[in-house]
């Protein structure tokens, strides 16, 4: 059995992936995942080493056929296939041709996986760095790629107005739309998640930070797949999905285990933020009488909303300021001739502030703004922490606290369910496992982050369900030699009773109420 690699570059920047550079690739290293169950998924990284004797990939060399195209953010899609049947499934012809060579096509049935058993995505990302090195006849280039989480990490989230009754998946879609992430199922796979009574952004965080707040509130997961999709798993799927793989000790090298108490938490604290709209109040008042608007001119003021307690807040139903009711103008600071009839205020309302454009229609006389205010419904929020604990576990292992923030968790009843579940699962020890794999095909090519598998390691009495939290892959002496390490996190191996869901809605002896 031999592996056939496809390292497809979009050097033209048109989305075509028309250049396969696999013949030049000398080594590959991929790192994806996170450091533990409570960490965010890190930006995925792929490092390629390519032969470069003709300086094809040298951005300083004007004689290269890629001159002007070796640029940051050019995309690359790494795939691999087989040349013979290793699992009893007939090889299916590939349907995408790149540079005259059969390459792997998108599998609309399997989603993130490629054509059935014939091939796999390995990495999809964009160029971060290109480093030519070596002397004449021994030139190489190192190309470092990062996946789409890097784009989310650097994109500033927009100022999105207050949304009501919006699902977490829909909120994530608004963030992706704002940062220009392609629409469609080939680049997005977003589950709905919980419905939030209220949600907004302020433009003060990155898209990644805003997304992380949503994921933390859901207790789900967000990552970039090997096919380049943004994938959001809601809590139901993240916790209750059935295992799709089996991994036996026979395929694993020197297994590594964390200490038994690494993941013991016998007191769980979840901080939530219940919210409610109040009655109409003055959200903002101009307290400066020296704001001057020249004849025929305009001035822009951003009004930051505060509630009745003087705390910064989001607001709904913000009213465009009305003359005499909300604003007045005079020819002098604090008074003079009444110029209110020449004053107009246009408003653009955001979630926590409004842009007020003050205009003066008088042709020859300027005025001072004497009064100006914004009215609307303030959204009041108060932090509340829910807790649960297991006294027996505390007696055995001592107090071990897990404190979590759920910035968009507004339903305390649902939050208590999450706390109870986490205490019930983590009060007892569960091993964290690192499983080295060497040339284990097809297993080491088929895993995706958050996939569940049944792990059996008789030497350590392990026989349970695990979730793929991370995966590293690198080539050895040749591109046919693959080494990988699976980082496995313990997952509940029980089925759950999910009301109204076929297969999970029949409460039985091996099911229990889930979250």
Account of the protein in words:
Helices cover 12% and strands 41% of the residues. The chain starts with a strand and ends with a strand. The strands form 8 sheets. Strands 1, 2, 3, 4, 5, 8, 9, 15, 16, 29, 30, 31 and 32 form a 13-stranded mixed sheet that branches. Strands 18, 19, 21, 22, 23 and 26 form a 6-stranded antiparallel sheet that branches. The protein has a 3-stranded mixed sheet with strand order 11-14-13. The model is unreliable at 84-117 and 495-515 (pLDDT under 50). Strand 22 and strand 23 (335-338) form a beta hairpin. It is mainly β.
Classification by helices and strands: mainly beta
Number of strands: 34
Strand content bin: 35-45%
Overall morphology:
flat
Which consecutive residue ranges, at least 5 long each, have pLDDT under 50?
84-117, 495-515
Please state the oligomeric state of the protein chains shown. Answer: single chain
Largest sheet: 13 strands, mixed
Query: What is the distance, rounded to the nearest whole angstrom, between the alpha carbons of the first and last residues?
Result: 45 Å
Helix content: 10-25%
Using the CA coordinates, give the radius of gyration: 29 Å
Give the overall average pLDDT.
Answer: 87
Number of DSSP helical runs: 7
